[in-house]
Amino acid sequence: MDNFTQQEEMLIKYIDGLMNPEEKSEFEKNLTVDAILRDELENLLIAKSAINTYGLKETVASIHTKMMNEFKEEAPVRNIYNLRKVVAVAASIIFIFLAVQGWIFYNLSAGKVFTANYIQFVPDDFRDGSTNITASQKAYLENDYKKVIQLAAASDSINDNFLAAHAQLALNNTDAAINGFKKVIAANSNAITSELNDAAEYNLILSFIKNKDYDLALNLMKKIKDNPAHLYYKNVKNKLIRQVKMLKWR
Amino acid sequence: MEVIKNLSDAELIGSLKQGRGLDAAVKFIYREHFESLSWFVMHNNGNKQDAEDIFQEVVVSFIELVQKDKFRGEASVKTFLFAMNRHTWLNELKKRGRSDLRELKYETAKDKTEMDVSHFIAGREAKDEVMKLVEQLGETCKRILVMFYYENLSMKEILNGLEYVNEQVVRNKKHKCLKKLEQMILNNPSLKQNLKNLIHG
Predict the structure, then answer these.
(1) Which residues of chain A are under the pLDDT cut of 70?
(2) Which residue, among B134, B143, B176, would best test binding to A if mutated, counting the most A CBs under 10 Å from its CB?
(3) Is residue B164 within 8 Å of residue B173, measured between CB atoms?
(4) Inter-chain residue contact A2 with B185, CB threshold 8 Å
(5) What pTM did the predictor assign?
(6) pLDDT tens digit string along B65-86?
(7) Coil, helix or strand for A202?
(8) CB B27 to CB A71 under 8 A?
(9) Which of A2, A12, A56 is facing B178, going by the closest CB pair?
(10) Which of A171, A235, B24, B66 is the most buried (most CB within 10 A)?
(11) A26 touches chain B (CB under 8 A)
């Protein structure tokens, strides 16, 4: 046995909770009358509480280190979560874009593209208020398309043939309209003129579209797109080219 | 990464009181509250290290309160921890003599509903001194005392982890170590008084 006094032994036994009930009762009785013993006990209790404070701080410090490491490890995972969110948003946008494009694609038709881009022809002579119009023009303005076609059949006039091609379009005779516009272009080429030539080319494109001859339409559109001086250059928009390509894929 | 079970306030308090499951409970506190409480410190003139130190301090104080049965659930654990965190950080700033205390966010927003936890928080300095003092005891003394008083291990369990011949030798060593610590505390009257306040506070 080390050199502890009996009192010290009893004090430590007491704070360690190792006394039997009788010993404990006797010891507590002594405490009430012995101030020095009370003081000694308090000192030991303070030392014991210091150990508990130390133990708790050490435990929390150890967990703290572990948790800080875990949080560090989780940081890249959080970044992955963020990346996933970004990808999800991007995917949603792409999905919406594709859905819209799909809807447009589904609803697109040659007829709709033709109607959206066709410009009703108004003869120049009539546009400036002149009453001096040809029989062909008069018939066209009266929507008498058959008469327009009849008159053109007996005429070499570019104007009459141009009107006849429009009349064929109005009567849904697309093949005949294509031939009519081609005839206008050929006549200009032969005579080295340009009367209604740009209008004929533009309307030939629309006739090709209506007739589902998309490659022919695209070739002619490319020709106009390459020529900013063409009167219908601005009418051949990228949107129209895109629509014709979509129609071609269908 | 360890999966930490979600605990209700009552379950958390139960785990902290019993001591069993203390590690899991502390980890839960970290997972649930570290981010928001450290945010407060870091956005009020503190850095990351300050935030970590204050949080550790708050967790230790909270566990002591719970184990002394002084947390009665007057507020949620979250509210209580936030108030402790705020109070501890304010005290730290005062100690540092920061003149920009008035700029502290939330300080101006303080209202009557905010908890006053000042009387719950024991002296930080006293605890720091205790840490130093126990370290001075030496590794063996420290281990024996912590295993016996903090971890509540039996003499037999302690003997298994140490190179002593029998339990009586360990018991004598423990007595010596405790007396040594007692003497060290007696040599520091202000620390003794602070620790006395901690016990009775």
Answers:
(1) 1-4, 76-81, 123-131
(2) B134
(3) yes
(4) no
(5) 0.58
(6) 898 888 888 889 999 999 999 9
(7) helix
(8) no
(9) A12
(10) B66
(11) no
